[in-house]
Amino acid sequence: METNSNKTTAAITHLSALTQYFIPFGNFIFPIIIWSSKKEQSEFIDYHGKQVLNFQLSIFIYSLILGIIAIPVLLFTIFNGVSLEALINDNDFIWSQLDLGNLIGEITFGILLLIAFFLLKVFEFFLIIIAAINASNGERYKYPITINFIK
């Protein structure tokens, strides 16, 4: 049976990942601070701290992969057929040189990857809330699609 203090600390550890919306890399900084300062007090807090960090690292890697694929596809698609000289010399660049009609498949693929990134972030938000609720109820929660970096 976990104490209310341990349940609250575990829930706050999960919720601290939401600081990413206000502070860059807050989703790593604050969970690490809370987890490292309290992990010796309770095995419950240690478990939830590892879960938060593993999930955030996994989401970061998935986001990087989507970005590495989506951004070059969109840029290549948009600027395909435009000469490098026209891009360098602003005076010669004419927006009518962009021919997007023949590249609808690549554009669609790039847009779908951006939508997947957005859905991943929405999925992350709701999973953090669910994990915090479970931690506050004294339950162990394991995030789906998580790579276990910290065991």
Automatic annotation (TrEMBL):
InterPro entries: MamF_MmsF
Transmembrane spans: 12-36, 57-79, 107-133
Domain of life: Bacteria
One matching Pfam family: MamF_MmsF
Keywords for this protein: Membrane, Transmembrane, Transmembrane helix
Subcellular location: Membrane
Keyword Transmembrane: yes
Entry membrane topology: Multi-pass membrane protein
Protein name according to UniProt: DUF4870 domain-containing protein
The organism's taxonomic lineage, starting at the top: Bacteria, Pseudomonadati, Bacteroidota, Flavobacteriia, Flavobacteriales
